[in-house]
Amino acid sequence: MAQIIDGKAVSADVKAEVAAEAAKLKEENGLKVGLAVVIVGNDPASRVYVNNKKKACEAVGFQSFEYALDESTTQEQLLDLVNVLNRDNRVNGILVQLPLPKHIDEKAVINAISPDKDVDAFHPVNVGKIMIGEYSFLPCTPAGVMRLIESTGFDITGKQCVVIGRSNIVGKPQAMLLLQKNGTVTICHSKTKNLKEICLSADILVVAIGRAKFITGDMIKEGAVVIDVGMDRDENGKLCGDVDFETAEKAAGWITPVPGGVGPMTIAMLMKNTLTAAKQQAGI
Fold this sequence. Notes:
Layout: E1 3-4, H1 7-29, E2 34-40, H2 44-60, E3 63-69, H3 75-87, E4 93-96, H4 106-112, H5 124-132, H6 140-152, E5 160-164, H7 171-180, E6 184-188, H8 195-200, E7 204-207, E8 225-228, E9 232-233, E10 239-240, H9 245-251, E11 254-255, H10 263-281
Parallel strand pairs: 1-11, 2-3, 2-4, 5-6, 5-7, 7-8, 8-11
Antiparallel strand pairs: 9-10
């Protein structure tokens, strides 16, 4: 039976580190870290995420600036707000909650955020820096996954790492981070052939495809580290991941649950990125 990787406990450690450093910055430099979160429209899931980010800011001692815009907000109005926030010295990090309404071009909005305040690490400049290994920020979910793997004491060097999913937000940057830690990385996706055989070769398996319980225990190498990034609903409407936890737990050496695995890490790493941004902007 696999050991459970407790994302709540690891994320609490990250937030405690951030809170301690933020308090020190305020005491020694008079610097109060600030995160601006912009939400457009009334998507219920987005509202939950934004509220969670606000709570996390309070927990680590950051200022939180929320801009809740109407669904009818134009792209020009949103870009104007981003430009104002780029120039606001109280704001160290800017996060525009996705998805945006269909009439707004997400790419244009991401590109408008100053790379120095892009704490999601979605801007092409930051994506390029990740590719060459000279980054300031990492996308929050892949960074959280790396911290979870690190918490197991499992050495990535020379290991077979399989990432299922090739999104710009998780799959691609995840593969780069594993590669930078000297893993041998395979990226799989919807067109991959012999997926089961590839999964069975994985010492580390990161699954981010958005298909409930798609990866089953017979696809997992004995003793592997299994990280489930998925957030789905099963046939009974119960929250689950992309990995069938019940069967996977019997084969894996380490496994993340859903909920309580990767999810808490994403916001913790956002706090860490915002702290890093504040320090860089202050020349500390």
